């Protein structure tokens, strides 16, 4: 696959490309960037949902009562799109049961619960001194075993995105560009910004590992908005430091004027390369692999240090937090525990959001845990996230369409979502909607457009799942019918065979019976013959005796006249 060379080191000021739509909400990022990354304290209990990522839930491999060490695998990936889960600290497994999880619906799901022992003892770790000695497929396997998922918020298992034509010959997806997403466009969130500022070397090392795996033939681009000068400087210094190492000189930091949502994967790809990922397609379809900076740093930890993904940097912010901050927190830590460290005031909190104000969802239960995808906890005051006024009728102003970064028609989608016309929604590419909320943000009628799209997507997925289930049931029913018919046919065949055999036997018996009757008839015939012979002998004897008497005494011989 070949693509236009769009960004190379030969161009000192890397080119960027315009993208459709986008909005400029207030950033509110400075609140949480005032200090360095903090370490969250160890909670007494860690709650690890088996489903923290897109794909199938992991399968627990520990039992209640087991002792576990920090970093020990406690749940295995269950299928290709699934992720391993590891104990974030040492302790005892005290439950494997449904617990409240961070989800917009407030639902419960199966979780492994670890009571920490305070020791925080690691299991043995196996780092790699020189990852270049390992085959890309081995590195991908290690990334999978380390349970790494996308840390930008989507939570897709990382290893799956790394399978390209270089690592699996059957795939016709040659990659020419590796893009690292350092674009954190959603208001309030600064987790990636501080990571790049403080751990740029870790990021560059992770990028070099990815280069070794993917072998991008053209370039490696780190996309960062120009409102993050410290992060850009730190990355460039780290690249310079790694200058003589393979691949380092091919890494370019591309800064650009940001807008929301320029950090969306498709939007960033278009900004940096001018290429459009086709509807329903993947970045690999246009020769690109894209990974978030946090994910890249986690890849470094997994390969170089042998550490699985057990913690992440989360922004804890909002006016209901006295000390907004970025904190490195163990996955599974209860949100209440993390909020407490940031001076959370429940009374001042109007709305607690996981994620940012545009794409996040409201949490009603602070006992739910931090998961791999938790990039932000926003404890917002009433002034920050006021209750929106009631929605009014659509005035067909078209502002939503102008704001849409995916070039969709939000107004039409809204009508069809309301009338549940799912076919029309799919025709209008509802599933290209990245749920950025830009349309809702600009709508003068304050219609919660994105909520309609989310609900419609869920309905369509459910409908499709039901159709799939019904289809499978039909296939199973038909297979059963065929089996029953086959068995019936086999029985009938056997019955016919038995009848044929019986007939043949009968025929044989009849034929064979004649042979058996012969001796009887012969015996009868013999008896008759014997009897006839006896009679004949007796008559002969009488006749002889009579003739002898007549010869000696003719008077004794009765004559015909005498009779
Ligand atoms: S922005 Fe709101 S009011 Fe305007 S067309 Fe879109 S849905 Fe209608
Ligand atoms: S939420 Fe969807 S429809 Fe609305 S602007 Fe974003 S991508 Fe477009």
Portion of residues within helices: 25-40%
Largest sheet composition: 6 strands, mixed
Q: Give the beta-strand count.
A: 17
Shape: elongated
Total helical elements: 13
* Heterogens: iron/sulfur cluster
Radius of gyration: 43 Å
Brief synopsis:
The chain has 563 residues and is of the alpha/beta class.
Describe the model.
It contains 13 helices and 17 strands. It has helices at about 135-145, 160, 190-200, 200-215, 230-240, 265-275, 295-305, 335-340, 400-405, 410-420, 420-425, 440, 450-550, and strands at about 40, 45-50, 60, 65-70, 75, 85, 90-100, 110-115, 175-180, 220-225, 250-255, 290, 310-315, 325-330, 350-355, 360, 375-380. It has a six-stranded mixed sheet with strand order 1-14-13-17-15-16, sandwiched between helices. β15 (about 350-355) and β16 form a beta hairpin. α4 (about 200-215) crosses α7 and α10 (about 410-420) packs across α13 (about 450-550). The longest helix is centred in the C-terminal third of the chain and has 104 residues, at about 450-550. The protein starts with about 35 loop residues before the first strand and ends in an 11-residue tail after the last helix. The structure holds iron/sulfur cluster (2 copies). The site of one iron/sulfur cluster (SF4) has 16 residues, from α12 and α13.
């Amino acid at each position: 696959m070949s693509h236009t060379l769009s960004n190379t080191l030969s161009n000192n000021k890397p080119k960027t490309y315009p993208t459709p739509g986008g909005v400029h909400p207030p950033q509110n990022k400075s609140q949480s960037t005032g200090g360095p990354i903090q370490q969250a304290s160890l909670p007494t209990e860690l709650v690890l949902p088996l489903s923290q990522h897109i794909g199938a839930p992991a399968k627990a491999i520990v039992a209640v009562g087991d002792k576990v060490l920090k970093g020990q695998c406690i749940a295995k990936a269950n299928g290709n799109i699934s992720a391993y889960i590891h104990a974030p600290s040492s302790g005892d497994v005290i439950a494997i049961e449904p617990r409240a999880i961070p989800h917009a619906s407030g639902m419960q799901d199966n979780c492994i619960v670890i009571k920490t022992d305070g020791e925080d003892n690691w299991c043995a770790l196996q780092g790699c001194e020189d990852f270049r000695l390992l085959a890309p497929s081995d590195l991908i396997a290690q990334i999978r075993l380390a349970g790494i998922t996308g840390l930008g918020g989507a939570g897709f298992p990382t290893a799956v995105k790394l399978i390209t034509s270089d690592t699996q010959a059957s795939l016709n997806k040659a990659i020419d560009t590796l893009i690292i997403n350092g674009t954190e466009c959603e208001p309030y969130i600064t987790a990636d910004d501080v990571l790049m500022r403080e751990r740029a070397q870790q990021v560059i090392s992770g990028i070099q590992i990815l280069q070794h795996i993917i072998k991008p033939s053209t370039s490696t681009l780190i996309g960062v908005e120009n409102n993050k000068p410290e992060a850009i400087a730190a990355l460039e210094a780290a690249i310079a430091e790694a200058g003589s190492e393979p691949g380092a000189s091919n890494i370019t930091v591309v800064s650009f004027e940001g807008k929301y949502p320029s950090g969306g994967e498709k939007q960033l790809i278009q900004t940096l390369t001018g290429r459009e990922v086709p509807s329903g397609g993947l970045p690999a379809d246009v020769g690109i692999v894209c990974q978030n900076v946090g994910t890249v740093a986690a890849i470094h930890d997994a390969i170089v240090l042998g550490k699985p993904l057990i913690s992440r940097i989360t922004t804890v912010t909002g006016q209901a937090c006295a000390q907004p901050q970025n904190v490195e927190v163990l996955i599974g830590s209860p949100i209440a525990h993390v909020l407490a460290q940031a001076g959370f005031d429940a009374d001042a909190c109007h709305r607690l959001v996981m994620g940012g104000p545009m794409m996040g969802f409201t949490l009603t239960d602070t006992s739910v845990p931090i998961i791999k995808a938790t990039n932000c906890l926003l404890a917002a005051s009433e002034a920050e996230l006021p209750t929106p006024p009631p929605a009014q009728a659509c005035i067909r102003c078209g502002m939503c369409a102008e704001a849409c970064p995916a070039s969709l028609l939000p107004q039409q989608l809204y009508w069809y979502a309301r009338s549940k016309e799912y076919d029309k929604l799919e025709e209008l590419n509802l599933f290209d909607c990245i749920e950025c909320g830009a349309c809702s943000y600009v709508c003068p009628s304050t219609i919660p457009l994105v909520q309609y799209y989310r609900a419609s997507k869920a309905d369509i997925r459910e409908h499709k799942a039901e159709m799939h289930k019904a289809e499978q049931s039909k296939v199973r029913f038909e297979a059963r019918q065929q089996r029953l018919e086959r068995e019936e046919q086999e029985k009938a065949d056997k019955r016919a065979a038995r009848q044929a055999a019986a007939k043949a036997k009968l025929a044989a018996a009849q034929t064979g019976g004649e042979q058996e009757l012969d001796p009887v008839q012969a015996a009868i015939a013999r008896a008759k013959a014997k009897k006839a012979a006896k009679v004949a002998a007796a008559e002969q004897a009488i006749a002889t005796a009579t003739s002898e008497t007549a010869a000696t005494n003719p008077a004794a011989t009765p004559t015909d006249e005498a009779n």
